[in-house]
Amino acid sequence: MTTKCSPWVSTARDIDLALTRHVGGPLFIQLRDHIRTLVNRGTFAPGDRLPPVRALAGHLKVNQITVARAYAELAVLGIAKGRRGGGTFICKPGLQDGPIRSPSVAGAYRPLLADRLYELSRAPGVISFTSNYPLVGADVIEEFRSCLRLAVNRDLEGCFQYEPPIGRASTRREISRFLERRDMRVDSENIVVTSGAQQAIDLAVRALIRPGDVAVVERPGYYGVFNALREASAQILEVPLEGGGMDLGALEDLLNRHTVRLIYVNPTIQNPTGQTMSESKRRALLALARRYDVAIIEDDHASEWCPPDRRVPSIAALAGPDDLVFFAYSFGKIILPGQRLGFLAVPPRLRHAVLNCRAANDLHGAAVLQEALAYFLEKGHYEALIDHARASYAERMDVLHAKLIETLPPGVAVEKPLGGLSLWITLPDHADSSELYYRAVQRGVAFVPGEIFFVSKPDRQAIRVSFGLVPEAQFFEGVDRLCAVVRDLLSPRRERSLIYT
């Protein structure tokens, strides 16, 4: 037996296995059990890295989905764990050999989505309806390029100095003016420049939550806030959505029974459902937060996609100076994806707590990008660029919605939001979005199964279809593929073996 040092980075050749179709069960189960046996024998030890999905699939001459699903089941069993962007690692010795009860589809799917969705959805030939942010137009690129030139030519030397955790003064000043145009008056000293809205949410969570504190989220809701709350060791309670946002009756019941520390809400073109909360409901939510002394984190990721005549004031705009309302915003979800530029508007009495968390995190963001953003906002072209992008994507939304309504079989519900880049689709009760996902990727199209948008008891009938990054030349072909695979799944005579190859 070859001696090795752990942790060990294995190659595809280290997993030699003859998979047999139609004998011995589904291929991914055969592969799962073989790797589990290797772990039991000591071939793999905790910390060892399994081969990349693509490499092992090529070596075994199977579809990448087969390997990804085997890894997903190992993760559910606690034998392996995926690291975002870093592969799959053995995390503990295997269980005793013998029959294993296969984990539920929902349970098996979560690790796959977190660790393998990006890879699978970008496999050659796959049209990916997974990205809830836009393609960057040539006009935006040219405008931001000119702002980068200004930042470099006018203040490059100053950008080589460490910044305070709150962010550059010029950037915060322009963000304050940006908010004022949205009827929000926030002093620049209460604005923290962040690396996108995810960091803004994480800072608010860490400033508020101590281990064991209770937080309330939407059901379904944004999985990024679930991750932040889990990292903070919070107890997470879900409030279902009804027409136009959170069920406030259910929320008040939770507030009566628990000491709730924060309420997370995504009130405008909610991710994933696309619902928009009415102004009256926003005011009622704010009144509940005041009565029970609970902080609100308002995630405004998509309000710019609303037509101007349909916009609803943000909760932060309705709040008073003593209300504990955090406002998280990302420029990357609307017009500058990939730049990780966003901010958190902070209640004054929690400013120092947030800044302490920021200093302990990454200290501050890139000064050059912050300065370029300040010029971008100062030049006043932001709204015009948004108007152009909104019109373009609204037309695509209309076409996609009409095509899905026309083509999908009876029993499939398609929600149409005020705007944005995603549609929320609900399949009939007997369908399963995980099974649909595996079939879809094999047929060359990907989406986001709805299960990740639930903390507990996931809805297996829901999917999110996002068209932000789908090139125009692939758009209709992708829709046709998606509709075809849904029809196949819902057909009473479906070939179940499709999910096992």
Question: What report would you give on this structure?
Answer:
The protein has 501 residues and is an alpha/beta fold. The protein has three domains: 12-121, Arc Repressor Mutant, subunit A (Orthogonal Bundle), CATH 1.10.10.10; 127-137 and 384-500, Aspartate Aminotransferase, domain 1 (Alpha-Beta Complex); 138-379, Aspartate Aminotransferase, domain 2. 43% of the residues lie in helices and 14% in strands. The protein has 16 helices and 17 strands. The chain has helices spanning 27-41, 53-60, 64-76, 105-121, 138-159, 169-180, 196-208, 223-231, 248-257, 279-292, 315-318, 351-361, 367-378, 382-407, 433-442, 472-490; strands spanning 80-83, 87-90, 127-128, 130-131, 191-194, 214-219, 235-242, 245-246, 260-265, 295-300, 325-330, 342-345, 413-415, 422-426, 445-446, 448-449, 462-467. The strands form four sheets. It has an eight-stranded mixed sheet, with helices on both faces. Strands 4, 13, 14, 16 and 17 form a five-stranded mixed sheet that branches. The protein has a two-stranded antiparallel sheet with strand order 1-2. Helix 7 (196-208) packs parallel to helix 8, helix 7 (196-208) crosses helix 12 and helix 15 packs across helix 16 (472-490). The radius of gyration is 24 Å and the shape is globular. The relative contact order is 0.12. Mean pLDDT is 85; it is low at 1-8, 94-114 and 493-501.
